[in-house]
Amino acid sequence: MRAASSLVIAAALLLGAGCTSTPLKSITVATTTSTRDTGLLDELLPVFRTKTGIEVRVVAVGTGQALEIGRRGDADVILTHDPVGEERFVAEGFGTTRTEVMSNDFVLVGPPDDPGGVGGAKSAVDAFRRVMDKQAVFVSRGDESGTHQKEKATWALAGIDPAGDWYVRSGQGMGAVLRMADEKRGYALSDRGTFLAQRDKLSLTALCADDPAWVNRYAVIPVNPGRHPHVKHDLARQFAEFLVSDEAQRLIADFGRAKYGEPLFRANPRPVGGGP
Amino acid sequence: MRAFDPDLWPVVALTLRVTVSALVIAAAVGIPAGVWLGLARFPGKRALTAVVYTGMALPPVVVGLLTYLLLSRSGPLSFLEWLFTPNAMIVAQTVMALPLVAGLVMGAVAAVPHDLVRQVRSLGATPWQVRWAVLREVRVGVLFALLVAFGRIVSEVGAAYMVGGNIQGQTRVLSTAVMMETGKGDFGVALALGGWLVVLALTVNLAAMRLQGRSA
After folding, report:
1. What percent of chain A has pLDDT over 70?
2. Do the chains contact at B84 and A178, CB–CB below 8 Å?
3. B81 φ, ψ to 5°?
4. Between A4, A73, A230, which is nearest B142 by CB?
5. Contacts of residue A29 in chain B, CB cutoff 8 Å?
């Protein structure tokens, strides 16, 4: 029995040592993986913390899950990229105001030898049709994320119901999907930020972009305290206001320029005000 | 992040803190429960045993989902404000570890020869003294149960991700960090973190073997 009691004592010591001090003010943001995986939040959050003393706890998941976390009141603010889903989120009373923060665009990436011949496509819809015609492997996020929503919308515009062995529903984050497409020598729709941030680890190239339909808008929405009285709406609004402040917008516009040769996001061209 | 990066220590420390806390709770409840279940005879024991054995095989993602729904702001235990904190992860891991500890201890106790139990009783031992004697008899089995439970929960990623949220500096543990770095394609970092997870498991096992050798 001495063995077990020694374990318990060791455990008790560890427990005591493990306590961390919590700062006075903190908020939880539910956001999409791209804002974390690109490193953008690592750039913005320390500045926000210095200015306001508010610590931001980041839960990075797909946009669908992020909205759901907001809906349940498990986050104070969401930062996502699915305008339709976000409008609905606000209309249903779960969020107060939707403020656009930044944008980039989606790109169709694929193997350099381009077996589907999408490089010559005239539009996003044309590119998707070519993938379907050649039955080339296409790796879908399949997770109701913002990227997945855009992908589904593009299939719908092309009049295609994607199904078959060539269409891979992965249910994973953007980074994992890019890697899967790389391994399977297939295509995938990606936000430009994540793709640029990971390009040197992949053999994929961007084959089709610059379609106006493929704008990728990120917006911030504080969760409605009318729905969930416990949320820190005031701090959440400070966070939203910070993201569209001149300082943050400058950081966003420059982010990635030094490392990747081009910025990963575009600052919001038409900044709108804070909230109600 | 390199293998000896200072950023790593909070992750290792939190991994230990969460897993050991869950294990302590699971042991405090599971060991007595296992001894009692192994010795007692009562109607419904078979059903209870079945429940414990089912619990041993509970899929972690189901535990994670149920813990999430329980602790969510829209859930019944929202007043605790535990979601996306280490406490939520401790809850999920305890739920996974408890049936393992109880079930394995119960199995070990049931394997103790009846003659021995009868002999202790015939010497006039109280029920508590009987339980204590049996527990001493199965101490190796108890240690084994704790090790198996440790191994199951320290490396578990699904529930930890769901209820912890993998928040940097707060709920990021080794397993969720490996998952995240793999998703980002930083295989080197993922490998280093995975290495630490293996080192952790190995250390605990070696320590337990030493303890076992000393008490045997």
Report:
1. 89
2. no
3. 55, 50
4. A4
5. none
Kindly provide the b/e burial profile for residues A236-255, where b requires at least 16 CB atoms within 10 angstroms of the residue's own CB. bbbbbbbbbbeebbebbeeb
Average pLDDT, stretch A97-111?
95
**Helix (H/G/I), strand (E/B), else coil: A126:** helix
In a domain, B73, yes or no: yes
Q: Could you tell me if A9 lies within 8 Å of chain B, comparing CB atoms?
A: no
Taking only the tens place, the pLDDT of each residue in A141-194 is 988 888 999 999 999 999 999 999 999 998 888 888 999 999 899 999 999 999
Residue A25: strand pairing partners: A54
CB atoms within 10 A of CB B179: 19
Helix ranges (H only) for chain B are 8-39, 45-56, 60-71, 86-110, 114-122, 127-137, 139-154, 158-164, 174-184, 187-215
B1: in domain: no
Residue A15 has pLDDT above 60, yes or no: no
How many alpha carbons fall within 13 Å on the CB side of residue A227?
20
In a domain, B58, yes or no: yes
- Residue with structure tokens 């050649």? A134
Which class does domain A106-214 fall in?
alpha beta
Q: Are B92 and B86 within 8 A, CB to CB?
A: no
Distance separating alpha carbons of residues A219 and A102, to the nearest angstrom: 7
Tokens linked to B70 = 């329980």
ipTM above 0.85, yes or no: no
Confidence of residue B216 (pLDDT cuts 50, 70, 90): low
Class of domain A22-104+215-267: alpha beta
Contact B21 A179 (CB under 8 A): no
Domain CATH number, residue B71:
1.10.3720.10
